[in-house]
Amino acid sequence: MNSREISNGILRAIFTIVLCCLFIYFLYKIQTVIVYLIVSLILTLIANPIIRFLQRRLKFGYNFAIIVTLVFFVALILGLFATLIPLISSQTDNLSSLNTKEIEKNFVLLSDKIELFLKSHGIKNNLMSNPEKLLSKIDFTSITDLLNSIISFVSNFSVGLVSVIFITFFMLRDKDVFIKAAKWLMPDAHEDKILNSVGKINELLSRYFIGLILQTVIIFVLYLIVLLIFGIDNAITIALLCAVLNIIPYLGPIISTALIIIISLLSNINQDFQTVALPTTIYIVIGFSIVQFIDNNITQPIIASNSVKSHPLEIFLTILIGGFLFGIVGMIIAVPLLTILKVIGKEFFPDNKFIRIFTKGI
Fold first, then answer.
1. What's residue 355's pLDDT?
2. How far is Cα 83 from Cα 233, in angstroms, rounded to an integer?
3. Domain span including residue 356
4. What's this model's pTM, rounded to 2 decimal places?
């Protein structure tokens, strides 16, 4: 190998590295668009069974079925966000001048009541005995920034919603065009396997996301019943938020429980701590624990295992590994990714003993 060949190889390597860096930078700059595409793909997977139902049962035309389905999605999304309007509007007038002193006062009052309760039972608590010291480490002014961020998100949400619905419409309407383009790019030797994999993945993930929505609705209704029983204000909003948090496997219920403890205690700030605030909070936590027990042992295993054809222990381990590797995002995408890998493995390596055991039932 002469010097010219070596220099050409180095130049090609540098050129390749530069192209990869530019491509990664390009993906970084359009990350919002990528998110829109992923959300649109998920909505497409959920929409397909609904469209087929409208076509077969109600005899809708394909394009009309798409429009009805997307209108239903928009109405559902806007309805969910509408539950947040009372909570947001109550803060909008005083958002720029949020009374952080009042928050500090309530926090001190709550800590004093907890301290008094603990002392009456002979329990020492050095943390609550000096709430001013604890408050000095909390930046309450950041609450204003947080609420401003929420308002900014809500104001920009319409742009994302319109973009996602627009992309989803054309993904559904022109799916045959996309399939033809994909066939043209596929290697002929593996075309049938790839198409079979895509079809099976589409079917399983459609069932999975619909099952996830069903699970969220069940959790929302059960949480709402608990909150209404104990007269918590904004029960619909809180139940919805806790149900959505439940999408985060295992960690979501913990966050929901911590959230409802804080809300319950602050909701009863003017009530007697020992006879009203604490018992009410304990009862609500027990109610939430019962709901989470039902979800973890009945609803979630049945829906998840039936939708993606995986054993509950397999799903648990996959979510655990995803969490260790990629955090909360890894926990959320673990089951869909497992489903994709299982379908591909079964289609391309059907004779492998491990793959046959791993993909049994698909």
1. 76
2. 12
3. 189-362
4. 0.65
